[in-house]
Amino acid sequence: MQAQAGTTAAIAAAVFKGRADRAAPPTPARPAAASPFDALEQFGTRRAFRRGQEVYAAGDPADRCYRVLSGGVRAVGLDEEGRRHVAEFFLPGDLFGLEAADARHLSAEAVADTVLVWYPRRAVEAMAERHGALGRRLREVALQGLRRAHETMFLLGRKAAGERVAAFLLEMAERAPADPCRADGARVALPMTRADIADHLGLTIETVSRNMARLCRDGTIAATKRGVEIRDRRALRGFGAGTAKH
C-alpha cells in the first residue's frame, strides 16, 4: 500500500513537473562571444583550397583579405638566388592579406586542404572606419604580425637550430586554442610539412627532423596524428642552447 502511494506520488510529481516545464518559458542559450570580424560576414565569400594550391601570387592586386576557417596558409617569397622562404603561417581564426601597398609582396599557398573566407578590401576599410571595435582589432592584427616578424628576424639571426625549432613549437602553442583541462601540456596542430618549417626557420629538413626526434626521445613533446603534444613546456623553452645554427 505504501509502495502504491509512493508510486502515485511520484507520478503526480512528474505530471506537475511536466506542466510546470511547459508553462515556463525556455531558458535562452548563452550567445557565443561576438567577434569584431562578425561585422565583415555580410561581405564574405567562402572558398576551399587544396593542399599546395595558390591563394594569390606575388604581384597580384591586394584588393581583398582573407580569414582562415580551417587548414592553414603559408606566405612564401624567393630570395635573389631563387631559394624559397616561408615568411609566416596563418592558422584558423587568423586574418591575412591586408597590405599597405596595392600589390602583393609575397605569395600565399594552402599548406593543407583549407577553407577561407575572403572580403573586399574597400569594404573592410570602410567598415573599419564605422566600427571602432573592428578598427581596433585590425590594428591588433597588424601589430601582432609586426611582432612575429621581429621575433623571426631575431630567431634567424641569433638562435641555434634547436632553439629555433623549440621557439617555433612554443609560438604554435601560443596561437593554438587554450585547453583548460591541461595545466602544462598542449596539443598543437601542425598542418604544415617539415619542409615548410625548415624554410621558415632557415634550416634543413634533416635538422628539423633531428631536433623533433630528440624532443620526442626526451619526453618534452609527443607526436600526434596532426601535430605534437607539448608535455614539458619548461624543458622546451630551454632546449637547443649551444647547438649548431644549421
UniProtKB/TrEMBL annotation:
Domain Cyclic nucleotide-binding: 49-97
Cross-referenced SMART domains: cNMP, HTH_CRP
Gene3D superfamilies in the cross-refs: Jelly Rolls, Winged helix-like DNA-binding domain superfamily/Winged helix DNA-binding domain
UniProt superkingdom: Bacteria
UniProt cross-references to CDD domains, sorted A to Z: CAP_ED (cd00038), HTH_CRP (cd00092)
Transmembrane intervals: none
Keywords: DNA-binding, Transcription, Transcription regulation
Residue ranges constituting the HTH crp-type domain according to the UniProt record: 159-234
PANTHER family: CRP FAMILY TRANSCRIPTIONAL REGULATORY PROTEIN, FUMARATE AND NITRATE REDUCTION REGULATORY PROTEIN
Record's protein name: Helix-turn-helix domain-containing protein
Organism listed in the record: Craurococcus roseus
Taxonomic classification: Bacteria, Pseudomonadati, Pseudomonadota, Alphaproteobacteria, Acetobacterales
